[in-house]
Amino acid sequence: MATKGLNFGVDFSGGRSYIVRFDQPVKVNDIRESLSKQFGDAPEVKTFGGDDQVKITTKFMVEDKSEKADSIIESKMFAGLQNMFKAKLSFNDFSTSNITIGILNSQKVDPAISDDIKKSAIMALVFALLAIFIYIAIPFPQMAVWTWRCYFTIP
Fold it and tell me: For residues 103 and 97, what is the distance between their CA atoms, to the nearest angstrom?
């Protein structure tokens, strides 16, 4: 947490969410791996309904709110997923929602949690860690003093 920071989810940062149906059962890890090659970062992939349907959530191009960004993301998704369909599928068929396979639903997810709540969550985390430290320090005072000296004193 100290080196990488907190990884805020789509609820905090925004992104796009897609429900995709395949014509055969698929594995979530295979989809995640294939899409991470296209997006550069692994999207969140979950089974949604049966084994042939997944929900894909990505932060790729989250700052771009234009329709052009949507088509770029859908084309990258098609490039990453087209080998997972049994039937030959065109991009147009993949991105049209009136068919039985391909993208069934898509939506933009705006940040739903304000900065004030984000700050409150971080403060709660800090206080929880402090409470855990105090809870451990009471039965093991020598360990608490040693830990304090190791981590908080300048050599």
Answer: 6
